[in-house]
Amino acid sequence: MKTKRHIVHLPVYQPGKPVEDVKRELGLAEVIKLASNENPYGSSPAAKQAIIAEIDNSSIYPDGASVELTAAMAQHLGVQPNQLIWGNGADEIILMLARAYLEPGDETVMADQTFSQYRHNAEVENAVLVEVPLVNGRQDLPAMLAAVTDKTKLVWVCSPNNPTGTIVTENELVGFMDALPSHVLCVLDEAYCHFVDDVEYPDGVKLLERYPNLILLRTFSKIYGLAALRIGYGIAHPDVIHSINLVREPFNTARVSQAAAKAALADQAFVEGCRAHNLEQRDYLQGEFTRLGLPFFPTQANFVLVDVGIPSREAFDRLLRRGFITRANWSKYPTYLRVSIGKAEDNRKFVTALEEVLKEAAVQR
Ligand SMILES: *Cc1c(COP(=O)(O)O)cnc(C)c1O
């Protein structure tokens, strides 16, 4: 057997450590996971009811086109149903975009550092990566535009950017899209859009009317708290949606996921509550990092990338032993941890543990 040559060197994705594994391995009674930007408030009770109600239909294939969910979302967003596509998480939309648009040797532009799946899926298609450094944790759209050539097919813009939490402003994006050649599709990943409170954040849906070469990615994994059900979506011009449908698997989203997403969408009060809690806890965590003298990128999402001033792997291990799972090993930020914004009580405990860890590390140095 011979694996395709251009994929053998690829890393296997390493997810945030599961709480149960850490409890077992370290014999800890309580473990707090601040690693995967999950919703600490769970999901809407309406979504849970919808899941239970749908279980009896488990012997029946899902609606491959997600007609009901599409209709509900189209109405919610004020777009046409043929402007929407659903995926097994937004991750699958990323995969399908790479599959539909990238041929071997095509170029694709993205930031360094940004969400790992753009790079991964481009590499699977044997495309040429063009990575443009962040400037102060922000995507440098003029430099990304300058990196576009006749061979460029896809440009990935993540706003808020994972892992830095920074946004691209409306002015920046409009300037970029106005200058982007029409043969290039811009993928604007808005997985964290619901957490943003910066008034300069663009309304992506409105921009779709102006730019047929723009697609927005969103998900039910983050503010809706349905990460386990794997349901995300893309919003774009019908021609772009058609191209993605050419590579979509027939039944790529599950029945329970479609039902839960539809119910969750109808419960915007839950979303508003999560958003308010996140903004309050964001201010708390950033205030504590300031008090501790730790640099961080001011975030517009539900996580903060903070400079702990020691190798991130060491900070990660020391925190893990105290029962806190974070995210480390960012190639461009070797002393930074990405910390998801949790519930008030968990954040307070985390700050206490972080202070202990930093004192302990200083003593042992
Ligand atoms: C979490 C995340 C996604 C995708 O999440 P799914 O669970 O696959 O829907 C996409 N983009 C970014 C930047 C993310 O952080």
Characterization of this structure:
This protein is of the alpha/beta class and about 375 residues long. It has 2 domains: about 5-40 and about 270-365, Aspartate Aminotransferase, domain 1, CATH 3.90.1150; about 45-265, Aspartate Aminotransferase, domain 2 (3-Layer(aba) Sandwich), CATH 3.40.640. It has 13 helices and 11 strands. The strands form 3 sheets. A 7-stranded mixed beta sheet has the order 2-8-7-6-5-3-4, with helices on both faces. Strand 3, helix 5 and strand 4 (about 130-135) form a beta-alpha-beta unit. Helix 4 (about 90-100) packs parallel to helix 5. The longest helix has 24 residues, at about 270-290. The radius of gyration is 21 Å and the shape is globular. The N and C termini lie far apart (about 50 Å). The relative contact order is 0.16. Bound molecules: pyridoxal-5'-phosphate. Pyridoxal-5'-phosphate binds near residues 162, 221 and 227.
Question: What labels would you give this structure?
Answer:
365 residues; alpha/beta; Aspartate Aminotransferase, domain 1; Aspartate Aminotransferase, domain 2; 2 domains; two-stranded parallel sheet; 13 helices; globular; binds pyridoxal-5'-phosphate
Alpha-carbon distance between the two ends: 50 Å
CATH architecture of the largest domain: 3-Layer(aba) Sandwich
CATH superfamily (homologous) name of the largest domain? Type I PLP-dependent aspartate aminotransferase-like (Major domain)
Q: How many domains, in number, for the residues? A: 2
Beta content: 5-15%
The first-level CATH class of the largest domain is given as Alpha Beta
Order of helices and strands: HEHHEHEHEHEHEHEEHHHEHEEH
Helical/strand content category: alpha/beta
Helix content: 25-40%
Biggest pleated-sheet summary = 7 strands, mixed
The 3D shape can be described as globular
Write down the CATH topology of the largest domain.
Aspartate Aminotransferase, domain 2
Strand order of the largest sheet: 2-8-7-6-5-3-4
Total number of β-strand segments? 11
Query: What hetero molecules are bound to the protein chains?
Result: pyridoxal-5'-phosphate
Overall pLDDT, averaged?
Answer: 97
The count of helical stretches stands at 13
Radius of gyration: 21 Å
**Can you tell me the residue ranges where pLDDT is under 50 for at least 5 consecutive residues?**
none
